[in-house]
Amino acid sequence: MSCSPSNVPVASRRQSIRSLVTIYVKEHQPNALREKSFFETMPSLELALHHAVFALDHREPAKRYSHQRRIRLAPMRQAGKFLAQAGAELKGFNTFETLHEFLANAFSKIRGLGPLYTYDTALRIGFFLKLEPKLLYLHAGTRDGARAIGIRSVRAVKVDKLPPELQVLAPHEIENFLCIFKQRISR
To answer: Can you give the pLDDT at residue 102?
Structure first.
């Protein structure tokens, strides 16, 4: 998911969660749904893994998702080798949470791959496997957005612990929302 806040000065753009959710649905949700659909409709697990590991989007030729452009290819290749060997095991997961934990354990051994890469890769593979997060995972910019709504020092949060205005979005969309609007959220 893309996490690109606008360049308007912070002080002049604080807004309520409700108004930001409206903006998210109009301006950002279509891209999130396109990414989800792209991975859900991949013709094979192998192709889904390739696109997930290298953070490749739907375009022809495929481009890397913007917030993962700085990741070097060597760690991504290592992740790809690991996932190619784990392909059959991946099909056995029945929740996103177990898939995410599996990847977090594996990727923690690969220098250059952090929690955001792990989450995004798990999310994309999860879309293919029809597994979506039930929790909101906090990492990088998402953690900053969570702090803005009063959530501190946790790795994942149940959606029912979030403000009701956010609960209209799927957990993966809330993750995207908090990252995009982290500097614009008004308490």
So the answer is: 97
